[in-house]
Batch of 2 targets.
Target 1
Amino acid sequence: MTAPILKNDIFLRSLMREPVPYTPLWLMRQAGRYLPEYNETRARAGSFLALAQNREYACEVTLQPLQRFDLDAAILFSDILTIPHAMGLGLDFVAGEGPRFAHPLRTEDDVKKLTVPDLSKLQYVFDAVSLIRKELDGKVPLIGFAGSPWTVGCYMVEGQGSTDYRMIKTMLYSRPDLLHRILEINTQSTLEYLNAQIQAGAQAVMIFDSWGGVLADGLFQEFSLSYTRRVLDGLIREHEGRVVPRIVFTKGGAQWIEQIAASGCDAVGLDWTANLGQVRQRVGDSVALQGNLDPMAMFGGEAAIRKEARRVIDDFGPVKNGGHVFNFGHGISRFTPPEAVTVLVDEVHTYSRSKHQA
Amino acid sequence: MTAPILKNDIFLRSLMREPVPYTPLWLMRQAGRYLPEYNETRARAGSFLALAQNREYACEVTLQPLQRFDLDAAILFSDILTIPHAMGLGLDFVAGEGPRFAHPLRTEDDVKKLTVPDLSKLQYVFDAVSLIRKELDGKVPLIGFAGSPWTVGCYMVEGQGSTDYRMIKTMLYSRPDLLHRILEINTQSTLEYLNAQIQAGAQAVMIFDSWGGVLADGLFQEFSLSYTRRVLDGLIREHEGRVVPRIVFTKGGAQWIEQIAASGCDAVGLDWTANLGQVRQRVGDSVALQGNLDPMAMFGGEAAIRKEARRVIDDFGPVKNGGHVFNFGHGISRFTPPEAVTVLVDEVHTYSRSKHQA
């Protein structure tokens, strides 16, 4: 296929530290429950999994926020748990409780049976990527994504969300060999999965290490970052004649920023506890930074949204060669009024122009 | 009263950066549900609140871990929510769900009615402190504590634990004046409360800023640290002829370590994501450090417990003038086998001797 010309590539250029006229933005979980039209499509699909596994539905909800807001990127509507589902762990989404696996990994036998899934079981994801690219028609770039091997492993061992990560940490401290085997398999699977997304048309990729920040210093490097690095090492670098930028987001990872920045990614996502100016001093301009508004600022009303957005842009400081992608430091809350997003997009696009030296 | 001579003051000396023969340790929530004898006393008391509000019960459970383990400090058995309970917010502990307030602060009117409680309503806490000191008979020092104004405020506005802090952050972003009023009242209350604990016999005090780490950079300083600093400024510095050291613990606060260290405290508590050696490089020897083992390491078996304890001690590095108090980076898990604590105490006391230059 010959791809249509990308009409707005400011997101890609900012990630690659090329001059841009303003700070681009997209929002984690921008296709989600705060949008009435999303809830309508989800109701038609019947369940979260049915929504994610049908390429027409996935395409429809991916495009919904772009119809409402002047966002600079689309992100594939999917879930970080598609890989373990394809491995046979039996994913289900329990209303009000989030994801749950019927067959979590708890015994040595469970771990020994685990294998890299046949990519054909994830074809629905790649089909969705292709369809979204077609429907986007070059409007903005499409981001593909996966969870980090560690973060996906947390769900595979815990079987669901956790507050103390006792199951996986018991394995980590008592049988690190078993955990390393899981992480090896996750690494290989994630690599194949992201490369297939790139081949299907993803123009940037993001690795969500949502739970890297629950690990002790030293163990984060051993059990999370080293595997993320191996995924990055194996990714297709160029596709359709253009570099495919990689973003790594570790929630609670600001203290490891130098090491994350050296992992082979083009950009690091940060949560709102970090100060972008201080982070920039620490890593120089070796990577772009993505973030980092507290999504709860969206509940403060228009003046607060504009003030807090400016605070993030001011913290990043003067821009010469891109390097900043505005985002939240976590997914948007389902309770966010959509009008608040309109205000945010306006403020980021308008206010940031003064910071860019073309 | 003339206090008995303190037989083991290694904890206090290490906090004040005086030479000690080994690294002292105590454990956050050391009097708790992982101990069968605690559960037995709690059953007799009937409820968590009845346990905390009766000085004999509170004394009994405070001393239980010291009978089992060679710990270097006792900590008052109480809760950070005693102050808002005394303010009339109606605290209850719902089984399996944690604390809940019958009357959370949600409206301007709620906030305007809030006042500093009469200390007589907290007399049961000071009575417990006096009784524990008597029963300890100089064995080890007793730590008093309170929540930070921000952390206690989170519970007062949310009404219970939270994952997104949407209620208090909505107030923060939309009506910061109301939140500042709550924090002012919490600050004054906390100050009086901790000083009364000191006068009743607390030999060190700790401020738990358990939720400081959920704030954005800039807002942490404005809404949490500035109020903690004011509490510290007003604390009684010496009692019974000895300095009363102050410890501040901000979960997820490693990125603000320089600012926390400059708040007027003698020691900073750290969670396990921080590397003690790197923190020490950043703050010099201006404060002692407390922490920072992942409490989940206790599920790894004896070899892992010893290895991870040594990792923390090695990370801190050579000790000349005290400066390290070993602890977890969070409360001990209720599922911890008590025998694991015996192993930990042995390893910390034994291994750390080689690091201390007397």
Target 2
Amino acid sequence: MQAFVTGCAGFIGSHLTDRLLANGCAVVGFDNFSTGQRRFLEQAQRHSRFHLVEGDLLDMPALQAAMQGSDCVFHLAANADVRHGPAFPRRDLEQNTLGTSNVLEAMRINGIGRIAFASTGSVYGEAAIFPTPEDAPFPVQTSLYGASKLAAEGLIAAYCEGFGLQSWIFRFVSILGERYSHGHVFDFCRQLREHPQWLRVLGDGRQRKSYLYIQDCLDAILLATSRAAARINIFNLGADAYCEVNESIAWIGSALNVTPQITYTGGQRGWIGDNPFIFLDTARIRALGWRPRVGIEAGVRRTVAYLRENAWVLDSRACLS
Amino acid sequence: MQAFVTGCAGFIGSHLTDRLLANGCAVVGFDNFSTGQRRFLEQAQRHSRFHLVEGDLLDMPALQAAMQGSDCVFHLAANADVRHGPAFPRRDLEQNTLGTSNVLEAMRINGIGRIAFASTGSVYGEAAIFPTPEDAPFPVQTSLYGASKLAAEGLIAAYCEGFGLQSWIFRFVSILGERYSHGHVFDFCRQLREHPQWLRVLGDGRQRKSYLYIQDCLDAILLATSRAAARINIFNLGADAYCEVNESIAWIGSALNVTPQITYTGGQRGWIGDNPFIFLDTARIRALGWRPRVGIEAGVRRTVAYLRENAWVLDSRACLS
């Protein structure tokens, strides 16, 4: 089987590429390296079954050509930054919604019938039910990022209905682990490297968030794509717990052996579109036999250990701070 | 007050323009006349308070310039054709999603804070609950049209959250009445004009659909935009009843005084993305005091009478048949 992986040089995409190669698949990886890292592909590049295509999802001819001959698509390429949406109001639409439209068109033209898609728990907006199930009440969007992923989900479902594609849509909480390269643990580690004495926290630190360790996330994706056989398969992916931002600060401080003074910018939300509580109901994926193996605290600690040993990652996305 | 109406030459847009002018507003109408009709604006053109700008939503500089000085936006311009989505897979995305993104950007740049948007009951996909409330279970999209409108809703909500806009989002059933220019009543009237002896019906004729008369629809829009004061206001609009396609055929036949032989293409769905049952819960708009005054049968009969007296409308959209 040949898998086409968009965003293959990203945090999740590079790990998925490694796993698919280890499982015996051929992988064509596609990335524009806007946020992807060449070093994340060092392991993949050692495989003869890996082929890298440097290109942009918005370059339709390049995408269409690169996809030719693949059997399925793992579509992970995205602008994954929720926080800076209002500063770049077109970016989520272009990278996430139009990018997904191009992926679907390229699949249709190439006769590729299966797509797995990295969506987000952000599509639930500020949910009314916790843990939030996949069929939660029709949500109202609170971020351009969530809206762009919701739009992508809608396009995928409509292509399944209109053109007979089959899809697996995964709504993630934040993912932790090696190669983690954006989000609040990243932000805190970078701050504490620059100034171990103090830490600036967006919001009141009481935000409750769920997380998932990268390999648990990949276990779920690979299980679902092999076992779930509906036309459109939608799964929440997350731990069966959540933590307060303040708890994660304590773990990070302990892992880095620092005790910073903390200042809070205040308010329930750290930024526009921040969600004060994210906790997804994962009964659906659990019914397939999946369980996460790494808890939230362990995931945070592994992430911090990785960032400490790979400080270059902390320097790599300074443009977004 | 100066209102900016996109799609001002369309079925609903032209009636809304007439109503706003009658209510004393100034109206800047914007239309690319891809499906809009100049004759629908004859009444509006007699008003000195009406100003028409011929332009396309995808022409951002033109849109931005035309919007300058308006106080609110009624965004009705869209590709309103559900049925032909798969034949033109980009059209809904461009006309509806990107068009809405441009409207929102033009509003942001011009400092305009209020938008009313014509969404659709199609965003519920194949709903699990009837009548379907606004907070129905998170739907799965079944058409590119529905997906494009859902994406537009998401963008609007995210702009409200991110930039302080206020919005009124209306999820319509099919609208009937004078100037009606697409949909199954239109299709049947055109067929019966060409060949009164027979009628070809897509699907099994058992599809159950709800409808709403145009002036009832406008009453609801104008009431909601003046009374509902949340940041994001979402309303279903529809009659408190539905009919079978076969019932509507009987009314149309009776109104036209023909008794055609009917052939069915078969199947529950007339086309890909057709919805076998549409019936919306309108308790939310009713709580503001709104009631529809014209029932479904009367609405169908008025529509048929209009199309009989204005046969030019039946000829105007032949490209879409």
